[in-house]
């Protein structure tokens, strides 16, 4: 890109503006996306579906959008909230988010109703990828991290790659998205209520999959304890892995350096921005949350 070239696109209103070709070096855009549906999945999580632009629909698994959330009260919200994509529905031109209402931003996001417009910037960051040689992958998620792993499972299924999804949750009401994962492969639910979510038990499940040669690659998000265990197994058995990091962000575009985390590369520690160099990283290089 030269100094005379634009580095941002004009806001795009889905359904009102005609699609236009943006310069190739601009990979993201600001778009106003009509809300198709917005419903509670359980007491804490909501499922949001929006109509998306062509550029937004080019999002890769593991990438995210920076959402402009309405204020839930009289105060202002000064920063957008990063949200990874839960499902990409290119056939119907829609993108889906599955998120937990935990703070002012997501409480404000939860007020959006069908017909409202969601202002989002993206797609942003670097996402998951699949090696053509892989025949079966394992995804391991907990809590909202489950949503982040949906698109990579979706992509694997579309490419005839087997998927085993291990979904960890507090109880059965919080084992979300199991329908999506069953479309791609096998689902194993592990719960706090019956003790099956213990790290030791999940490790036994992974060891069994490795023995059955059903673990060509590991993917994880949502739990530092499960990540550390999966990283250790991956190193011992030489199984490549990728982790989607969850991190507080301000700009989501790189300049602010709020989302910097430590990584170990070739025996040396270095700092990387989750929003730009990630949010998906090599599992063996990530130190953790």
The gist of it:
With 289 residues, the protein is an alpha/beta fold. It has helices spanning 54-57, 104-109, 145-148, 150-158, 178-184, 199-211, 224-237; strands at 12-13, 29-40, 45-51, 64-68, 81-84, 87-89, 94-100, 117-124, 136-142, 162-169, 186-191, 217-221, 241-244, 260-265, 268-273, 280-282. The chain is built from seven helices and 16 strands.
Total of domains:
2
Write down the CATH topology of the largest domain.
Elongation Factor Tu (Ef-tu), domain 3
> So what's the CATH class of the largest domain?
Mainly Beta
Determine the structural class based on helices, strands and strand pairing: alpha/beta
Q: Strand content of the residues, in percent?
A: 25-35%
**Helix-strand pattern, N to C?**
EEEHEEEEHEEHHEHEHEHEEEE
CATH architecture of the largest domain: Beta Barrel
If helices are DSSP runs of H or I spanning 4 or more residues, what is the number of helices? 7
Helix content: 10-25%
Tell me, briefly, the overall form: globular
Tag the structure with descriptive keywords:
289 residues; alpha/beta; Elongation Factor Tu (Ef-tu), domain 3; Rossmann fold; 8-stranded mixed beta sheet; 6-stranded mixed beta sheet; 7 helices; 20% helix; globular
